[in-house]
User: Fold this.
Amino acid sequence: MVGAGAAGLYAALVAAGRGARVALVSRSPLAQTASYWAQGGIAAALAADDSPARHLEDTLAAGRDAGRPSAARVLCEESGARVRDLQELGVHFDADRAGNLTLGLEGGHSRRRVVHAGGAATGRRITRDLSAVAATHERIDVLEPLAATSLAIADGRCVGLTARPRRGDAVEVTARAVILATGGMAALWERTTNPRGAVGAGLSLAHRAGADLADLEFMQFHPTALRRGGPRDGFLISEAVRGEGATLVNAEGERFVDELAPRDHVTLAIAAELERTGLGAVALDMRGVDLDRFPNIAATLREVDIDPASDLVPVAPAAHYTMGGVATDLHGRSSVAGLYAVGETSCTGLHGANRLASNSLAECFVFGHRAALAACEDPAAAAVAASPEEPPPSMPTDETRIALWRHAGLRRDAGGLALVLEDRFPLARLIAAACLAREESRGAHQRTDHPVADPALRGMHTLMGGDGRPRFEPWE
Assistant:
């Protein structure tokens, strides 16, 4: 298991629960991964007036005719069971005095169905609780802080990996299967809500091993990231705040968008306001929100001299969530035997061109569960893993981040994307190639030179093989 965020921790616990011996490789200490910062909750149809079928409708509608119906159906039908699993593992979700789960409303959802833990501290609570279980589990060996640097391939099958500490000798791990759960790549963009290390490490590892990547053009930009100079710039202000009544207002103090529309719609509406006014931010009005429900957000804002009880909060879009990733089936299997991917590292096609809020944590647990069970059935590795000697993976420069924000950001065109094709960072070049191949505007992918959706690309996914040449495939 590579990665100790929500997906990796949960998949490790599921596999260990089935009797497998699990090596959990994490470059960060447990409970300090990107999932720790996740403010959104887990989307699950648990209310009496809700159903998996209604959740499915909302998911596919948000995906802008690019979502994979079979993947969306799996998530919507199984997320409720995964919430109950987490409760059995000791995760305490927000509930009313009678013990009933408190369900939040977020953009694109037609019903209240978002389960939170500690308000907007859901990622923190879940990773903390799962880390405590994993750290003491007799069948899980935690290898930290180690970074996976290459995958071992024998006879076309992944049989392990090499991991390296910051100092010292490399560690070779042999395994019947490797599950990548290393998060996404949103920190490749200059303005982001993600920690700086979210640069697609798992995607790069998989691609170097010959696995297909998919839908790299679909980076979701969150509409309400704090616009403030300094280290807190880009701090995510959860969509749940808007679900509890916060509104977006323009320079004239007027509402200009339905705050609970899907994210791509809200993001583009904000971008239009910024272009109209020449300002760097619009304002989020949280003054009518019960701030006791979002203590970490209120505390962070006050750190930068914003009192959300009395002040308007300056916000603007930022790169937030990787909807593409390592192409997998509905059990997390990649195109390389023995190699799996789950969570934000993977692409099942679930999210299409625009992720429905809080489906991401649900995805971690639903597909983490499926991948762990499938991996346990793989044959044992025939030989000790020996990864090929390769140079350390390159890291993106600030120039790469600036180029992606400028040329593969909220709006793109062929001229700018062609410049990114020359970038030194391999994953940036793959992103540019995928963006160039999709000559249309759909969801999070907006081409100014192709401003409408192409009906021929409805339901089509962009696959990127080892040759770096994009091809389109329909996924059932």
